[in-house]
Amino acid sequence: MIFLHPAFTLLFVLLILFSFQEVYRNEEKKSAFAIWFIAIFMIVLIGLRGNVGADYPIYRSFYSLYFPTVDYSQIVDRMLFRQSAIDIEWMYVLLNKWVFAFGGPFQTFTLVSAIITIGVKLHIYYKNSLYPIFTVLLFFIPGFFIADSGHMRQALGMTMCLVSYQFIKSRKFWWFLLCLYVAYGFHKSAIIFLPAYWLVLVPMNSNRIFYAIITCVILSPFQVYNLFSGFLSGLNLQDVSNGYNGYIGYEDKASSFMDGVMVLNSLLVIAYDKVASKKIWYYEYMRNIVVVGICLYFIFRDNPVFSTRLVGVYISFTCIIIPNIIASLNLNMKRMWHLFFVAFMIFYYFVFASYQGNAGRFTPDRYQNFLWTN
Fold first, then answer.
1. pTM of this prediction?
2. What's the rounded Cα separation, in Å, for the pair 210 and 349?
3. What is the CB neighbour count within 10 angstroms for residue 318?
4. Which of 28, 120, 168, 212 pairs with 52 at a CA distance of 20 to 30 A?
5. CA 44, 48, 52 angle in degrees (round to 5)?
6. What are φ and ψ of residue 29, in 5° steps?
7. In the prediction, which pLDDT does 237 show?
8. CA–CA distances in Å: residue 155 to residues 62, 256, 363
9. Residue 92 in contact with residue 184, Cβ under 8 Å?
10. Where are the alpha helices (DSSP H) in 170-254?
């Protein structure tokens, strides 16, 4: 039986314990101490990692060899959508250059990236989830490892998309557009989140959600996304390294696993839509985003790149909506579903450790951190 490094295992156990405290407590107050303690723990684990994560080596070489040679005029050209020799998104290049200008090694950049992605993400979770630690537990595997600890560009882009959700709620379009512009500057896939500003307003109910998802499941084998191949190819979603595809590939090869997760998410949204809509503020907004993500997943199911990266920003809202749905239920149902998801995450822990965890170097014999030696 393969385990993740003891530091990750300890964090996982703490998330489970804190989530029990959230769900089983009598008062509604959230624990700010718990969420920020977890945030600091997570930032240290990935911000100060050494040669960990599938894309770490190539990003490290770019940081010290390629990005310092990029002229700021080229970055401005890329910002203004003009012809540019830069092959990587401008905001990611700019952030690298700023950090490099202070003379720090690459782990300085990974620390800055972790502070942005984890700090901002957990702040958004705290504001929008009734059980923020439970939300972090659902995010922990695989999102924390695959995105924040590996594909940093997309993690930064998705984080800015989460920030933009605050302006979707307040209906501040220009602020939303600014966030999305910055997100696009980190990773092109963020552009897929642009319709979310209007999609959240589409009236939905259990029946409409069911028919929408079933329609997309039926369309899945026909690869209708090929009708938009020109636009999708322009997003250039292939990463700078093949490593990322390598350690998410285990799930793609056994797609029934992800299919099962999507079916479970669909059942929860359909079964408890009415009660959650009555009790949770802005639930309908989050629900519509998740439903779009599930539909897009099945549409893109035969393409492992599109079905993981392109829909990732929509699917990332499931870790917020599931705890909110559970919070809206009666006490017995609430505890039953919480236990179910804790058991599922424990199962997922061992699956991830055996496959992606080993490939991404998160296991005891391969994980390195600059704060200690193995």
1. 0.93
2. 30
3. 25
4. 120
5. 115
6. -65, 135
7. 54
8. 18, 25, 22
9. no
10. 173-186, 196-199, 206-219, 229-234, 243-253
Q: Which two tokens stand for residue 334?
A: 């609430």
Tally Cβ neighbours within 10 Å of residue 305: 18
Q: What are phi and psi of 369, to 5 degrees?
A: -140, 140
Distance from C-alpha of 144 to C-alpha of 82, rounded to nearest angstrom:
34
Check the CA dihedral 322-323-324-328 and report its sign. Answer: positive
**Encoded tokens for 328:** 């809206």
Helices (H) and strands (E) counted in the chain, each on its own, are: 21, 0
CA distance 318 to 324: 10
Q: Are the C-beta atoms of 317 and 327 separated by less than 8 Å?
A: no
Do 209 and 322 contact (CB within 8 A), yes or no?
no
Structural contact between residues 328 and 280, judged by C-beta atoms closer than 8 angstroms: yes
Q: What is the DSSP letter of 227?
A: G
What is the Cα–Cα distance from 342 to 335, expressed in whole angstroms?
A: 10
Bridge partner residues of 361 (DSSP): none
User: Residue 102 burial (CB < 10 Å; 0-12/13-18/19+)?
Assistant: exposed
Q: What is the pLDDT of residues 337-370, one digit of tens each?
A: 999 999 999 999 998 998 888 888 999 999 999 9
Rounded Cα distance between 117 and 123, Å, is: 10
Residue count (the chain): 374
Q: Which two tokens stand for residue 338?
A: 């919480």
Cα–Cα distance between 257 and 67 in angstroms, integer? 39
d(CA 22, CA 135): 11
Please give the Cα distance from 109 to 59 (Å, whole number).
10
